[in-house]
């Protein structure tokens, strides 16, 4: 009888010890991810750097990767490296006309992306600096024609990890200035040309 009581106490103490040590192991693994610094809505303004191109982006925690609208995609060699050239169409604000720019970026790789329909599609991957919540972040984008969608940019979980939490009931919770100053147009200046450096 005494042995049985001692055995029960031993197992109880062992269970408590295991709970305490497993909790400390779990809490140590949580410190590997930096704490998010911002709260974003499901739609935010961003800027593509270094040009400061301002546009709206959908913030989507249901997507693992980020996507950028691209049409007329062409791969080419620059020196001995693979590059990609594409056209990005985007609106700056609702009601304003769509702008079109040609962008060239080094090609990181191609990757199969699984769509909601379950079908995998091969997409080209590039990296760009993005101003989000007044901070510059390097984001990998897969290129896909998003002209039929409301937003030319979709930011997924990889781009948001350690940066922000998302409040899906709100929009436009942050600014995307990153040192850019809004220029006032002269009355005579109607041009909207944009030169993108290589």
Automatic annotation (TrEMBL):
<dbReference type="InterPro" id="IPR021109">
    <property type="entry name" value="Peptidase_aspartic_dom_sf"/>
</dbReference>
<dbReference type="Pfam" id="PF05618">
    <property type="entry name" value="Zn_protease"/>
</dbReference>
<feature type="domain" description="Retropepsin-like aspartic endopeptidase">
    <location>
        <begin position="39"/>
        <end position="174"/>
    </location>
</feature>
<dbReference type="InterPro" id="IPR008503">
    <property type="entry name" value="Asp_endopeptidase"/>
</dbReference>
<feature type="region of interest" description="Disordered">
    <location>
        <begin position="177"/>
        <end position="198"/>
    </location>
</feature>
<protein>
    <recommendedName>
        <fullName>Retropepsin-like aspartic endopeptidase domain-containing protein</fullName>
    </recommendedName>
</protein>
């Amino acid at each position: 009888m005494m042995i049985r009581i001692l055995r029960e106490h031993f197992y109880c103490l062992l269970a408590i010890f295991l709970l305490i040590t497993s909790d400390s192991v779990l809490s140590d693994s949580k410190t590997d991810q930096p704490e998010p610094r911002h709260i974003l809505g499901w739609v935010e303004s961003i800027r593509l750097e270094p040009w400061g191109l301002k546009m709206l982006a959908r913030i989507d925690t249901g997507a693992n990767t980020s996507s950028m609208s691209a049409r007329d995609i062409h791969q080419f060699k620059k020196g001995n490296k693979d590059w990609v050239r594409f056209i990005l169409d985007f609106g700056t604000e609702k009601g304003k006309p769509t702008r079109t720019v040609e962008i060239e970026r080094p090609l990181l790789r191609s990757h199969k992306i699984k769509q909601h329909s379950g079908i995998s599609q091969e997409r080209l991957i590039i990296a760009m600096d993005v101003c989000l919540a007044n901070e510059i972040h390097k984001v990998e984008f897969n290129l896909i024609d998003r002209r039929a969608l409301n937003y030319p940019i979709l930011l997924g979980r990889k781009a948001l990890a350690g940066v922000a939490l998302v409040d899906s009931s709100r929009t436009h919770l942050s600014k995307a200035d990153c040192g850019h100053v809004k220029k006032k147009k002269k009355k005579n200046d109607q041009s909207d040309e944009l030169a993108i450096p290589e």
